[in-house]
Known about the structure:
Blueprint: H1 2-18, H2 24-42, H3 46-55, H4 62-70, H5 77-93
Helix pairs in contact: 1-2, 2-5
Amino acid sequence: RRSRIRAQRAHTLADLQLRRGTGAADSRRAAAVVLEAAMTVSGITLSQLWLDYVALGGSDSRNELANLMSGDRPLNRAEYDRIALALNERLEDAGYHRLVSYWDGSR
């Protein structure tokens, strides 16, 4: 049962990544949706993600990270990739393969 649930979550996350919008607002929100979905799949809290993000060199506060994750503040390449790396590490720890694509589309 766990394998089936994991596969379903991974498929949902992959679908979200494929549906990123092309406009700036759509793209920003789509990126936030993918990151939020990955956070949900990994089972971590925003505080845990923030600690991982800071450990990887992120300099935003927890509140600023929350704004990035909600799409209220635009993500630049470095911020997106740092958050994606933190999430991918957590996902790998949970038994998933890297599910969050990086800015350039690589995994």
